[in-house]
Amino acid sequence: MKILCIGRNYAEHIAELQNETPDAPVIFAKPDTALLQRNQPFFLPDFSQDIHHEIELVLRICKNGKNIDEKFAPTYFDAIGLGIDFTARDLQSKLKGKGLPWELAKGFDGSAPISQEFKPVTDFPDLKNIDFRLEVNGEVRQQGNSSLMLHDFNKIISYISQFITLKMGDLIFTGTPSGVGQVKVGDQLTGFIGEEKLLNLAVK
What we know:
One of its GO terms (molecular function) is metal ion binding. Keywords: Metal-binding. This is 2-keto-4-pentenoate hydratase/2-oxohepta-3-ene-1,7-dioic acid hydratase in catechol pathway. It holds the Pfam family FAA_hydrolase. Residues 2-189 form the Fumarylacetoacetase-like C-terminal domain. By secondary structure, this protein is of the alpha+beta class. It has one domain (3-203): Fumarylacetoacetase-like, C-terminal domain (Fumarylacetoacetate hydrolase, domain 2, Alpha-Beta Complex). 14% of the residues lie in helices and 33% in strands. It contains 4 helices and 15 strands. A 6-stranded mixed β-sheet has the order 2-1-12-5-6-9, with helices on one face.
């Protein structure tokens, strides 16, 4: 199983980080050791003083494929869940400033919590109209809708598969809306799709 992630997929998030809008999806990966499941707590690492939350819709790949045409992409994922792409923003900025890869800022242990439940695709009447949000200590911090993605699910799957073979069980984080911010010890992070709570974890 691999974890593939899309960066810069919501215009307002691009603006808040003052990044350039990419022509194609920005792809990066997290190792399987980044996965955090069953609402286990997230422990702040000692190498960063500025860990940010980034809530995302996550696709679960259900069969193997490469060079997938966009029109066939819907048959390659069967469920949608939530994930948080924890980012060591200070480390990322330092690495980016030197023109170096920033995997260490994204792929550290526990940096990819996912919801225990993934909802079947058939539960969604419109995949281009999925509301989701992140609450921190009961306050809404991030709110998004799949309609606001620069590259939709089908485009993401098709694009990735031109370079990387997708396999059953792979997870794809599809990008985060604006509102990212720092987490601190004692925070309680709760993620929702619509009004259904799917993710709930403590920061320690």
